[in-house]
Amino acid sequence: MGFKFRYKIAFKQAWAVLTISLILGLLSTSVQIFLDLRQETRSSVEGINRLIELHKEAAQRAVYNLNYSKADEITSAIIAHPEILQATLVDDFGDALAHHVRDSSAPDTFFSTVGNFFFPFNSHYESTLTIGDSHSGVAKLIIELDSTYIAHNFALRAVTSLLFGVLHTVVLASVFLFFFYRYLSRPILNIAKWVNRLRTDEDIALPYTGCDEIGDLVTSFASLWDERRQVTDRLNKTIQKLSKSEHFSRSLMENAGDAMFLCTPSTKIIDLNNQAVDTLKSGKDQVLGTTLSRYSQNYTEDALIDLFNSMDEKQVCTFEDLLINERNRVFPIEARGIRIRLDDKDYILISARDITARKESEKQIFELAFFDTLTGMANRRLFLDRLSSALELHKVHQVHGAVLYMDLDRFKTINDSLGHGIGDRLLCTVAKRLNEIVPVEATSARFGGDEFVILLPEAGDSRVSCAESAVHISKKILEAIAAPFEVDGHTLYCTMSIGIAVFPEQGLCATDVLRYADIALYRVKAMGKNGFQFYDPEMQSSAQERLLIEKGLYQALDKKEFQLWFQPQVQADGAIVGAEVLLRWMHPEKGVISPASFIQIAEESGQIVEMGQWVLTESFEQLAQWKAQGLPASFKRLAINISPLQFMQVDFVGRFLTMLTDYKIPGELIELEITENMLLNNFEIASNKMRILKQRGISFAIDDFGTGYSSLRYLRYLPLDILKIDRSFVTNLRPSSEEAAIVEVIIATADRLGLTVIAEGVETEEERDTLLELGCLCFQGFFYARPMPATPFYERLQQDMDIMA
């Protein structure tokens, strides 16, 4: 036959068609048999249920009446069906009222065995019968199906369907094979014989001349074969000439570590090395003939052609691109291209290197340099860069922008009490809420800690419209932050303080705008937090004054510029019962500075701890001196204000008790004045320290009572002795005023709890008389005496001792 049997297309084709047809036929028949099984099972179950329902009522009456003949009639009727093998009617005592069994109507054949094995089903059915109000048990109608009969019938139908399906498939496949062989396989076999004979005989008639695709193929091949004979000699010479240089170039290309592509100027790939095949994850034959733009994400075919046309033979052209391999993985590459000339034709040699690792490193470096690692927001560096760009842009365009400098209130309390882990997650949640609010063109940044900044580059065409936009966004931020935060099972409440600076202003740089917003933020903090303020020139001078004070505080202790002054606390008869220690700063240039001007700054800068320790030491020394000189019997205590930051120091109680021992001062002579904020933020720690000190006789007073949020909550739980009514309730106090009603409630509450009340800021006789009418018996204020240094105060004490003597 000229060909080995196994290479004939007709036989391969016949085998494939017959095999596929049989598989598809078996699958189709199996699916049909499965569907028939489901339908047969469903129909059988429905039939059994109908049969039971048909006889159920009669069976219930037969059991209820113990009618054996009726029960026998029912079971006989049931087993009349060929599918049912036996039927039993059991009364509510568990006794069989009637039972019928018949022989199986089908022999135990091969089909029944196959059916039972492949198509198992439930052959046992029980139906519960309701028998009046019987309490003895449950009556049942029990039916056993003839599984052999059912399985035999179904298996017989299934086998018959399977045989007819296979026969149908074989016939259909044979018809297809005939037509395939007649019109496709036989012409191809003749063409194959003709091609083999061309190698030895040039003058052979065409094996096929039909006007179809096969005929066109034979004609084209015959034409190409003639052309081949003409150029064979010329090609052999060329190959011999280039064999040495080609072998050298091929070795270099194949062993290169970069992917290399040899392309025509039209971007068609005509050769590539092994590394390129591995990079594209595709066979070499599949890549050859395709265009390089197919694997490029950044360059279209026209753009890549323009790039290739710009290359020359002397200068390497370097460019970056995103390469797409056959597995749809996209990765960056650095490509180098140069024009080369082979056989008087121009080609482009491209060398491509995967730079994924380098890009990821560059991205990490960029993120570390310009983004906050915790929240993913921009950091200070990136924010200032964008703010500087916005300022340059606003010099040209008549638009205005704004900077919102924000600080999270109470964050330090949450961070210290619940831990930095909770604090970090809270900051991430705050950042998420801010990013959901700010416009797309805005830049949100975190400067560290709980400070956030937002840049609104184009907030309005005028300063007014810009301010309105900033106010609108600030209100949305305040509302969003005020909503509770759920962090690791903790419900946290925070507020936000926002300082706003509008730009551009003549001659301002980015740091100036940011500083103005920061100054406005301090204004918000000073006004009670949880709000927003715009920067103005007054705030600038206030900030400068604050910086001077903060700088001066660092030197005041070393230069001994602080002094203790004392203001008497007087009872109704005029006798001095105590004194409050007041700190005065004797500034060498500004004179006497009151605590109101520098205490808050000292607290915010942390200097209050060192200053507070100095106040305690000086107060103990002064009290020890007065005690040695002699104190009037009416003098009960020296009141010392304690900063929350100082009181919460870990070693405060130990140092305080040591000082009591060193200066030999009884604790009963010392009163510590604390603020409501300390109780609000650190209730448990503060209360424990107070109880320890209370054991040494120290008394405690709440300063400025009534101006905070939660004072009444703590009165019954803390070892307090004194309530000091704030001067805001005392100033211009009249018997019928609203303030009088508040003071009366405070005094009544203190009396009920056994606490002493001292009214601060008493300046007039009318205020004193009104307080007396309301029940207050102890006073402090200018009406009795102004604060004074230690020497004049002790002289005043001596006058009281002389009067009492």
UniProtKB/TrEMBL annotation:
InterPro entries: Biofilm_reg_signaling, EAL_dom, EAL_sf, GGDEF_dom, HAMP_dom, Nucleotide_cyclase, PAS, PAS-like_dom_sf. Residues 546-801 form the EAL domain. It holds the Pfam family EAL. PROSITE patterns: EAL, GGDEF. The keyword Transmembrane helix applies. Keywords: Membrane, Transmembrane, Transmembrane helix. The chain crosses the membrane at residues 14-35, 162-184. Residues 399-537 form the GGDEF domain. It comes from the Bacteria. SMART domains: EAL, GGDEF. The keyword Transmembrane applies. This is EAL domain-containing protein.
